[in-house]
Design goal:
The complex is a heterodimer of chains A (553) and B (114). Chain A is mainly α. Chain A is 72% helix and 2% strand. In chain A, strands 1-2 form a two-stranded antiparallel sheet. The chains are: A mainly alpha (553), B mainly alpha (114). Chain A: It is found in: Cell membrane; Membrane.
Chain lengths: 553, 114
C-alpha cells in the first residue's frame, strides 16, 4: 500500500513557501525581477494547490477530511496535518490575498528594503501552517513563524512611525506568545496530549469522569491559551495595538495583517467547536458567553473607532476589528446555521478590507497637501467651501477608477447592497431570526448582536462616506494621480473576486454550509485523524528497525 | 519541591510583568526575558516533577512507563527556548533601531513632557 499522491498536496502549502523563501534569501536586490517572479510563481502554485485541496475536501476524501501524517507516525504521537473544507477555503483566501499583495508590491514596495519576498514567503508558510496543523504545539510554532515574519514586514520601509508601531506590536505579541505556551502547558498537564483530536476525546472523558479539579485546571489553561488568539483576533480590550500597526505598515503588508487578524478568530472557531462542542459533557459550551459578549464589545469598540478617526489607515484597522468581533460574537452565540453566514462574512470582509488597504495609498496621491489641510480644518473652523472652477479635462480614468473602487469597498465593508457584504449580513440576520427547528428561538443576546451588526454598518458607512466626500468631492483642484498598472490590477482583481462572491453566493454558501457542518461534527473528525494509519515502510522486512518504524504505536 | 518551584515561577513571572510595563526599552526587554524563563520552567514542570528518571529506556531493559520521565515537555521546552530566544533577539534589534532613529529609549519614541 502506498500513499495516494493527492495526499501530499496537504503539505505543499507549508513546504513550498519555505523552500521558495529560503532560496530567495541569499539573492541581493539586483535580482529583484527574478525574486518577484519566483515569489509570484510560488503564490500562484499555492492558489492552484489550495483550489485542488478544496476540490478534494469537497468530495475526494472520505468525510471531506484529508490527513497527512508527517514522518509517517500515527496521530497522537506524530504531527498530523489536516485539510478539510474550512482550512482549504482559508488557504484559497490566503493565496488570493498573497497574489494581490505581491502584485501590488512589485513596482515599488518590494524594492524599498531587502528580503521583502523572503519574509513574505515565510509569512505565507506560517499562515498556511496555522490553518493546516492540528496540534497545539505546532500551532505555536507556526504562529511564531508567522509573527516573526510579520515583525520584519511591518518594519519594512523603516521609518519612525513604523518603528514606534512595531515596538508595541512586537511586545504585545511576544507576551501573547508566552501566554500561548502557559496555556498549552496546562492543557498538556491535564489531558496528557497536544493533538487536538485526541484532546477533544480526553476532555469528554474527563468531564464524564467527574474529575472537577482537573477540569477547572483545564478550563483555566484554555482561557489563558485563548488570550493569545484573542490578542491576534483583536478582541476588546486586547486589540488596542491593531489600528496603529495597520496604519503604520506598508499597504502590501497591511493586506496580510488583515488576514492575520482572521487567523486568531479561525483558531478560536476551530478549537472551541472541537473541544467544547455539545459532546464534551460538563465542559460543553465553556466560555461561549464570554466570547459572545466580548465579540459584541469588540464590535462597539470598532464602530466607535471608525467614527472617531479621520485617518484612512486607522479606519481600515477599525473595520478589521469590527469584522473579527462579529465573527467572535457569532462563535460564542453557538448556532451552527449562523456560522455559515459568518464564514461568508469572514471572507467577504477580509477581501473588501484588503482592497481598501491597497486603495488608501493610491487615494493618498490625489490628496494634495492643500486638500488634506482643508479636510483637517473643515470641522474645526467650519470653513465654507467656495466652489472652484473645474480645471482642464473631465473625469480622468484614474480618478473614475479610484472613486468607483472606493465606493465598492465602502459598500462591502458597510454591508449595503448590492455587493457581498450585504449578502453576508443578510445571511446572518436570516440565520438569527430563523434559528431552525431544533435550536432555541432568538433571545436578548441575538437581538443585541443583530442591532450591533446593523449599527456597526451604519457607523462604517458614515465614516467611509465622510472620507470619500472629503477626498473625491474636494473642491480644490486635484491632480489626476499617476497610477501604475501593477497597482491598479490587484485592487481591481480583489473587487472582481468580491463581485464574483456576490454573483456566485449560492455555491459559496453551500460550500461553507458543508464546512460549518464538518466543524460542528467533531466525532467524524476525531475518527478520521486518529484512525488514519501510517503507511508501512517500503523497506524489506529483514532490515532491522524497519518494522517498528512503519508501525507506530 | 512543588511549592518552591511554583513560588519561584510566580515571582519571576511577576517581576517580568512589572518590567514589561515599564517605560524604558531595556526594562521591557529584561521583563520579556524573565517571563520567558518562567514560562520555560512552567512547561518543564508540567510533566510532573521527578528526579533521576531517564527520559528514554536504557538499552537492553524493558520499558516501564512509571520509571521514565516524560520526554514531551523536554522537547517542547527546547523548542520554546529557541523560539523565545530568537524573537527576543529580534526585539532587541528593533529597540536598537528605535533608539537610533528616535534618539530616546522611551517606548513611545519620545520623552514624556514634564
Amino acid at each position: 500500500m502506498s500513499l495516494a499522491w493527492t495526499q501530499h498536496l496537504v503539505v505543499v502549502p507549508i513546504v513550498l513557501p519555505l523552500l521558495c523563501g529560503a532560496a530567495l534569501a541569499p539573492l541581493t536586490q539586483g535580482w529583484h525581477r527574478l525574486k518577484f517572479a519566483a515569489a509570484y510563481a510560488s503564490a500562484l502554485a499555492l492558489l492552484a494547490n489550495a483550489l485542488a485541496l478544496a476540490a478534494l475536501a469537497d468530495g475526494g476524501w472520505p468525510g471531506g477530511i484529508g490527513v497527512y501524517l508527517a514522518a509517517n507516525w500515527a496521530a497522537p504521537f506524530g504531527i498530523a496535518l489536516v485539510a478539510d473544507r474550512l482550512s482549504a477555503g482559508m488557504l484559497v483566501l490566503t493565496a488570493v490575498l498573497a497574489l494581490a499583495a505581491l502584485h501590488y508590491a512589485q513596482p515599488r514596495w518590494s524594492r524599498i528594503g531587502v528580503h521583502f519576498h523572503t519574509l513574505f514567503q515565510f509569512l505565507l508558510m506560517g499562515i498556511n501552517g496555522a490553518f493546516l496543523t492540528h496540534d497545539l504545539f505546532n500551532l505555536f510554532v507556526f504562529f511564531e513563524v508567522m509573527l516573526a515574519a510579520s515583525y520584519g514586514l511591518v518594519l519594512h520601509g523603516y521609518n519612525v512611525e513604523r518603528l514606534r508601531a512595531s515596538l508595541q506590536y512586537i511586545a504585545v505579541n511576544l507576551v501573547a506568545a508566552l501566554f500561548f505556551l502557559v496555556g498549552t502547558a496546562l492543557l498538556y498537564a491535564t489531558t496528557g496530549t497536544l493533538n487536538m483530536a485526541d484532546m477533544a476525546q480526553r476532555i469528554a472523558a474527563l468531564a464524564a469522569g467527574g474529575q472537577s479539579s482537573t477540569l477547572v485546571l483545564l478550563q483555566t489553561g484554555v482561557a489563558v491559551l485563548a488570550l493569545a488568539f484573542l490578542v491576534k483576533a483583536a478582541m476588546w480590550p486586547l486589540g488596542f495595538w491593531l489600528p496603529t500597526t495597520y496604519a503604520a505598515a506598508s499597504p502590501p503588508v497591511a493586506v496580510m495583517l488583515v488576514l492575520m487578524t482572521k487567523v486568531g478568530a479561525y483558531v478560536i472557531l476551530r478549537l472551541w467547536l472541537l473541544l467544547f462542542g455539545d459532546g464534551a459533557g460538563a465542559a460543553a459550551r465553556y466560555g461561549y458567553e464570554a466570547l459572545a459578549w466580548g465579540g459584541m464589545a469588540t464590535i462597539v469598540f470598532g464602530a466607535a473607532g471608525m467614527l472617531a478617526t479621520d485617518t484612512a489607515g486607522r479606519l481600515a484597522g477599525y473595520a478589521a476589528i469590527v469584522s473579527s468581533g462579529t465573527l467572535l460574537a457569532v462563535i460564542g452565540y453557538g448556532q451552527p446555521s449562523l456560522v455559515t453566514a459568518a464564514l461568508y462574512y469572514f471572507i467577504a470582509s477580509t477581501i473588501a478590507i484588503a482592497a481598501f488597504v491597497l486603495l488608501i495609498e493610491l487615494v493618498d496621491r490625489i490628496r494634495t497637501p492643500g486638500a488634506a489641510m482643508l479636510a483637517l480644518t473643515a470641522e474645526a473652523f467650519a470653513v465654507e467651501d467656495t466652489p472652484a472652477e473645474p480645471k482642464g479635462r473631465g473625469v480622468p480614468a484614474a480618478m473614475a477608477f479610484l472613486s468607483l473602487a472606493f465606493a465598492a469597498c465602502a459598500l462591502t465593508i458597510a454591508g449595503l447592497p448590492p455587493l457581498s457584504g450585504f449578502v453576508a449580513k443578510f445571511g446572518m440576520f436570516h440565520a438569527l431570526v430563523n434559528p431552525g427547528p431544533d435550536a432555541p428561538a432568538i433571545g436578548p443576546a441575538g437581538w443585541t448582536l443583530m442591532a450591533l451588526v446593523f449599527v456597526s454598518g451604519l457607523a462604517a458607512i458614515v465614516s467611509l462616506m465622510r472620507f470619500g466626500v472629503r477626498t473625491f468631492w474636494a473642491t480644490e483642484a486635484v491632480a489626476p494621480p499617476a497610477l501604475h498598472a501593477a497597482e491598479v490590477v490587484p485592487v481591481a482583481a480583489l473587487l472582481l473576486v468580491s463581485v464574483l462572491l456576490t454573483v456566485q453566493a449560492r455555491p459559496v454558501f453551500d460550500y461553507l454550509a458543508r464546512a460549518s457542518e464538518d466543524i460542528h461534527r467533531p466525532a467524524l473528525y476525531i475518527d478520521r485523524v486518529l484512525g488514519t494509519r501510517p503507511v508501512p515502510a517500503p523497506l524489506p522486512a529483514n532490515v532491522p528497525g524497519s518494522a517498528s518504524a512503519g508501525e507506530a504505536p | 519541591m512543588e511549592a518552591v518551584l511554583a513560588l519561584g515561577i510566580g515571582i519571576v513571572f511577576g517581576a517580568g510583568i512589572w518590567l514589561v510595563l515599564r517605560p524604558r526599552t531595556f526594562q521591557v526587554l529584561t521583563g520579556l526575558m524573565l517571563m520567558s524563563y518562567a514560562v520555560n520552567l512552567f512547561i518543564f514542570a508540567m510533566g510532573r516533577l521527578a528526579v533521576d528518571r531517564p527520559p528514554l529506556t536504557p538499552a537492553g531493559t524493558m520499558a516501564d512507563p512509571a520509571a521514565l520521565a516524560d520526554p514531551v515537555p523536554q522537547a517542547l521546552v527546547l523548542t520554546a527556548i529557541v523560539i523565545g530566544f530568537a524573537t527576543t533577539a529580534l526585539y532587541l534589534v528593533v529597540m536598537i533601531g528605535a533608539r537610533g532613529l528616535a534618539g530616546t529609549d522611551h517606548v513611545d519614541g519620545e520623552e514624556p513632557e514634564e
